[in-house]
Specification:
Layout: E1 15-24, E2 29-36, E3 42-49, E4 54-61, E5 65-73, E6 78-82, E7 85-87, H1 94-106, E8 108-110, E9 114-119, E10 130-135, E11 138-140, E12 152-156, H2 158-166, H3 173-185
Parallel strand pairs: 4-10
Antiparallel strand pairs: 1-2, 2-3, 4-5, 4-7, 5-6, 5-12, 8-11, 9-10
Amino acid sequence: MHRPSPGPDPVTRWRVHGERPLYQSDWLDLKLADVELPSGARFEHHVVRTPRAVAAAVVRVPESGVLLIYRHRFITDSWGWEVPAGGLDPGETPEQAANRETIEEAGWEPGPLRLIGTYFPTSGLCDQAFYVLAATSARHVGDPSSGDETERVAWMAEDEVKELIRRNEIHDGFSLTALLWTFASF
């Protein structure tokens, strides 16, 4: 995974003296890190470690628009439009994961995927990295195979997607970042 350089001033870098586990699962590890500030203050800080990064495919096809799925999220008890997204399986590249997730969740296989960028959505708490990928073509390969995740699949014009964003009907942070970043890149 790409990690940004530590920066030009190592004097302001926080030191980590160790971590102790609080909870572990296949999805995440919750730990307490023993950290020391440059001023010498030392304290414990909660850290969420994720064993897998997350990938997304934003598929933009000029004649069809943007591929979105409509789904329910139980944690926030909300419905909304999202880009196909999910975790990387062990040994999988971000491109392979984005391709697999798009097929599973939407029933479309994206054309060649291009990495738009990588970011850490909550870098003050979690080491999870999101890879944003885009394709400008896709072919229909069948119905979504992850029926429990996808309520609807739709192709929408870029203007429609931007209106959904304005109306807060796309409220998933990963989808918002992926869409806005892709719009700015093409």
